[in-house]
Amino acid sequence: IAQGLKLGKCPQPAVQANFDAARYLGKWYGIQKLPTTFQKGQCSTAVYTLKSPGVIGVLNSELDDGTISSTEGTATVKDPAEPAKLEVSFSKDSPPGPYWVLSTDYQGHTLVYSCREVGLFHRELAWIMSREPTLPEATVQELRSILSSVGVHVDKLVPTNQDETYCAPMSQ
Questions:
Q1: Rounded to two decimals, what is the model's pTM?
Q2: Where is the Lipocalin/cytosolic fatty-acid binding domain (predicted)?
């Protein structure tokens, strides 16, 4: 079975109540994630900006073998009644993907979950991010337990290197 594929339909986890996109804008640092084919680097950051009402600009950056690579996209709210369920698209060639904010306190941490059904299977992505390059271990464990309750194999989460010296090229 291809990486990340699990049998059955996507789970439907609860998302952040009363999600406020305006407070979510700004820079987030990757702390842990489920491995992906499209994010192989370290020092990952995501910067969100408001483009127009209901449309958020996304700039994902990472350091890959000493080179900064960035991807730009847009996130849109599909249903105003569920503002924490966004849809992100990065290029005209790839279909948009779900971006669900399961938990955030806006100032410290966010937990993002994405699931797409592929035939009889589903593929999951998850990111734990922080406003700082580090996140208290207790918070990380709390967010991992939310993922675990949804059925995500949290033992597969990999840490992102946010070491200040290693990641220095990112802040130049």
A1: 0.93
A2: 20-162
